[in-house]
């Protein structure tokens, strides 16, 4: 996924499924300058991490 798409998902009203290495995650914030996205595991906000946008995959 690219940074622009991560920003679109973050701003969307509907829930858009996103995976990180097969784990369902929520996008918390996007740093477009660095190409990084802060995510947390779905159902576990304490499990937060910052990853390159390219590691995220939109689930269709």
Question: SSE layout and pairings?
Answer:
Elements: H1 3-11, E1 18-20, E2 23-31, E3 36-41, E4 44-52, E5 56-58
Antiparallel strand pairs: 1-2, 1-5, 2-3, 3-4
Explain how this protein is built.
The two termini are 13 Å apart. A five-stranded antiparallel β-sheet has the order 4-3-2-1-5. It has 60 residues and is α+β, with helices and mostly antiparallel strands. It has one helix at residues 3-11; strands at 18-20, 23-31, 36-41, 44-52, 56-58. The chain has a single domain (3-58), classed as Roll (SH3 type barrels), CATH 2.30.30. It holds the Pfam family SspH.
> What would you call the structural class?
alpha+beta
The major β-sheet equals: 5 strands, antiparallel
Number of helices: 1
Strand element count: 5
The shape, in one word, is globular
Low-confidence runs? none
Spatial order of strands in the largest sheet? 4-3-2-1-5
Characteristic key phrases:
60 residues; alpha+beta; SH3 type barrels; five-stranded antiparallel beta sheet; 5 strands; 15% helix
What's the quick description here?
The chain is of the alpha+beta class. 15% of the residues lie in helices and 50% in strands.
């Amino acid at each position: 996924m690219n940074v622009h798409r991560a920003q679109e998902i973050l701003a969307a009203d509907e829930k858009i499924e996103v995976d990180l290495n097969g784990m369902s995650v929520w996008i918390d914030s996007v740093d477009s300058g660095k190409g990084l996205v802060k995510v947390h595991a779905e159902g576990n906000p304490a499990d937060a991490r910052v990853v390159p946008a390219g590691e995220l995959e939109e689930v269709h």
